Amino acid sequence: MRLRKIYYKLPIKLRYVVRRLYYLPIDIWTGIFSAKQELIPPKGKIFIGSGDFYKQGQNHLEYLKKYTNITPSSKVLDVGFGIGRTAVALTSFLDKNGVYYGFDVVASGVDWCKKNITKKFSNFTFDLVDVNNDLYHSSQNSAESIRFDYKNNFFDVVFLFSVFTHMELTEIEHYLKEIYNVMKPNSYCLATFFLYDSDSEVMNNKDFQFPFKYTNYRLMDAKVKGANIAIKQEYLLDVIGQIGFENKKLIKGYWSMTHSKDENDFQDILILRK
Ligand SMILES: C[S@@+](CC[C@H](N)C(=O)[O-])C[C@H]1O[C@@H](n2cnc3c(N)ncnc32)[C@H](O)[C@@H]1O
Among 57, 65, 93, 264, which residue has the least CB neighbours within 10 Å? Predict the structure, then answer.
């Protein structure tokens, strides 16, 4: 928790530099002495959090297979793809008829994915959008100002792993509306959140608390809004229903320590159907 607080205090650009330097010795060591791992970025470039990049990508794919109608020929949209953790897993699932689109605000992630994934898998497209997120990218443009640059009713599956946990509530509402437009009828959206029913739930885990309270949401850090957001479950489900989504399933995560670690993922997983 203390390390996380220090990390949030750093200016955005410095966060990337610190990560690169911190992992430089291990990246040099791996580069020289380990067999080259295809499609795994150096640790210092993985700005999306800790954990096993490959294994977590495979977990994401398993969730998509379990909870959505994804097939090898699906058209999928990965909003906030980071540095391609889920995309890498999808390279061995989608076939030549499958289409992958992703967009993100971090140029280094887009560059790595284009160089390493699109070069081999031409049906994978990674785009950069210049919108502000105070954890990841500084810009004059707000996420609420963008329109998703895809045809309406185009995608079979849209997913966001650990993205709506880092955006502001009004931005999330705007993205959900855009997502609804680009989804085909009867298609699925999988998105992860921190959702709470009671105020005590957001303070239950002493290493992962949301002390700053606002109407319908709580923040981990009041100065870095993109750090982590928890949303009142009743409010979000109401918004989702108003947009037109059917709420198919909510799989509670163990972040608040109210659900078992064995069966659940850290974040809450929400499955929506258009
Ligand atoms: C924790 S990372 C998760 C990345 C990826 N989904 C994964 O699971 O590996 C959150 C990502 O959301 C992206 N992001 C934040 N705000 C965004 C926005 N408004 N539009 C698109 N991506 C955004 C960040 O740049 C970052 O790559």
Answer: 65
Whole-number pLDDT of residue 36? 66
The total of other beta-carbon atoms located within 10 Å of residue 131's CB is: 18
**80 CB near ligand 1 (under 6 Å):** yes
Strand, coil or helix: 270: strand
- For ligand 1, say whether the CB of 53 is within 6 Å of any of its atoms: no
Between CA 70 and CA 94 the distance in angstroms is 9
C-alpha 99/C-alpha 71 separation (Å) is 11
Q: Read off the amino acid at residue 235.
A: Y
How many angstroms does the Cα of residue 224 sit away from the middle of ligand 1?
A: 15
pLDDT in tens, 128-146: 999 999 999 999 999 999 9
Sheet with 75-79, edge to edge strand ranges = 124-128, 99-104, 75-79, 155-160, 183-193, 268-273, 246-251
Rounded mean pLDDT, 102-126? 97
Three-class SS state of 185: strand
- Domains with residue ranges and CATH for the chain: 49-273 (3.40.50.150)
Q: How far is the CA of 83 from the centre of ligand 1 (A)?
A: 9
The rounded Å distance from CA 162 to ligand 1 centre is: 7
Q: Distance (Å, rounded) from C-alpha 59 to C-alpha 29?
A: 27
Bridge-partner residues for 231, per DSSP?
A: 195, 217
Q: What are residue 47's DSSP bridge partners?
A: none
Do strands 155-160 and 183-193 pair parallel, antiparallel, or not at all (unpaired)?
A: parallel
Predicted confidence band of residue 35 (pLDDT cuts 50, 70, 90): low
Residue type at 60 in one-letter notation? H
Q: Residue 149's Cα: distance from chain center in Å?
A: 19
Mode of pairing for the β-strands spanning 195-196 and 229-232: parallel
